[in-house]
Each structure stands twice: as structure tokens, then as C-alpha cells.
């Protein structure tokens, strides 16, 4: 289904870049959706806040090369996110796939004219830029708090989030969506007696 130009149709936006890339796939009332099914959807993602925050003023082309490389990164991140969520250990193949994306870029450190250190991202080809930035962001997340990388607790949801709550107890991609649905289901089960739990 085509997306309106410029409109980001995803139910969860604003997560760290690596997870925001994962969240280009979601499920709604119409079924599975994928923002990256077209170059138009890619253009929407490239103009999103998480991408701009990481890439700064760099503009990337919304072309097939960029899309293919971004999908390669997303596939690797999907496997790694499942492992980070405690479902399965990260496989050597998933780690190798992310390392392959990372091999196409690097951070060059220099001493600037003002005597202060400077950093610049260099990629083999501009089409690797968005994929490399997302893969590099994954490294930052797993170095910081890998246990805070979470899938939504709704089994029918494929979204991920980075739990920044004080106690690390966030369970849902959003309380307005999956959280409220779970509360409504529990309430219905209590009212109809179809639930197995007790009301406290």
C-alpha cells in the first residue's frame, strides 16, 4: 500500500536509530506493513528525526542501492535484537552480517586546526551511509545497556524499543496501543470469568 508523501505512517517512531530501522516493519489492522518496501518509504525514513540526529546535514539518496544496503542491515539487526531480548543467543551468522555492514564505514579521528579532536564518518560509498549509521548505533546500545533493548510484550507486535524507564520495567511499544489493548483484554477476562488470574 503506498504511503502519503512525507508522512511517516509507523505507530512507533523516535527510538534509537538501530531500533527505528527495525520498526520500519509493523503490523496494523490491515496486516503486516513495511515502510521500506519502496524508495518512497525509504525517503520518508531518511527524513525522520532519528536519521537526521545521527547523520547531521548529510543527505542520502533514496535509491535502490541505499535501500538494498539498509535492508541488509535490518535483517542482521532483527536477528541480533531477538538475541538481545533473551530469546536466543546471537548467532555467528547474525554477528557476521552486522560486521559486514560495519566494514563499509569507519570513524576517522583527526586533530583539527583549532587543536581539538574531530571525528568524521567515512563510508565506502554514500549508499552505505544509512545502513552503517544504524549498525554503529547498535554497537552503542549493546555497549551501554543491552538488557534495555526489548521487543514489545504483545506477541502479535513486532516493534522494539529501548527501555529508558528508571526501573527498566517498560513492557509495551506504547501504552496507548499495545498496553491499552492488554489492559482491556485483562479487564474483559475478569468480567467474563474467562481469565485464569485473580483480581488483586
Explain what this protein looks like in three dimensions.
- Helix 4 packs antiparallel against helix 5, helix 4 runs parallel beside helix 6 and helix 5 packs across helix 6.
- The strands form three sheets. A two-stranded antiparallel ribbon has the order 1-2. Strands 3-4 form a two-stranded antiparallel ribbon. A two-stranded antiparallel sheet has the order 5-6.
- By secondary structure, the chain is an alpha+beta fold.
- It is globular.
Number-wise, the strands total 6
Task: Quote the beta fraction.
Answer: 5-15%
Q: What oligomeric arrangement do these chains adopt? A: single chain
Please give the largest β-sheet.
2 strands, antiparallel
Low-confidence stretches: 195-200
* Gross geometry: globular
Order of helices and strands: HEEHHHHEEHEEH
Question: How many DSSP helices?
Answer: 7
Give the proportion of residues in helices: 40-55%
The Cα radius of gyration reads 19 Å
User: End-to-end span in angstroms?
Assistant: 44 Å
Quickly give the structural class: alpha+beta
Mean pLDDT: 86
Side-by-side strand order of the widest sheet: 1-2
